[in-house]
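Sequence in, structure out. First:
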Amino acid sequence: MGAGAQLSVTDQRRMARHPVDHPLIAEHFRVGDMRMHVSNISATGFMIDDAGDLARGDRVIIRLPIVGRIEAYCIWIRDNRAGFQFERIIRPDDFLPMIDQLQPNPRLRRNR
């Protein structure tokens, strides 16, 4: 095993998180396809609320509207939640339209 994920994105936990309700199927590098429920997302990562058998350091590929396929690494797990960091930052010109699709209710979107 390596020393962990070698990410090009620095940990920017203060990035604005947007609440979403987005089920998806992730490609897990060890167990294959698995269902996930994304409950919030930022330009640097996302949180799921159904972590199940995930472990810190696990890699997944997910598909998001506008952005398409993107790889992410599990950086924390607490109770049944897990936080993932994208392998790259999502550009604002892709991120904002993606949020519009993932969170169609404008009252639930964070101020921009």
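Second:
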Amino acid sequence: MYVEERMYTMQVGKAPEYLKMYESEGMAIQTRHLPNMVGYYVSEVGPQNLVVHMWGYDDLNQRDKCRAAMQADPAWRAYVAKVRTLIVSQDTRIMKCAPFFLERLKKMLAATK
């Protein structure tokens, strides 16, 4: 199993606006396409104006298919056009689950469905 971590640095003071737009519009679209939201966070200590979200995938092929479907969705493209001006930079990491954590992650994800 893989977890994709996406980190967005927002314009100063714009994280609350981004989160509000995501909650009211983006989340419903995104969760139609991506299978497992692992978490959605905003920085409290350390780099400021940072929004981090993580998504679980069975494998990288699943990730490619899910993200391609999302990118093809006109509703997603319209949402991204609205929030793009709030984002300064983006970083992405894809992490492979440690063997001893795999079953725990699967149970955590199953509990959210």
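Remark: Residues 42 and 51 are 4 Å apart (CA to CA).
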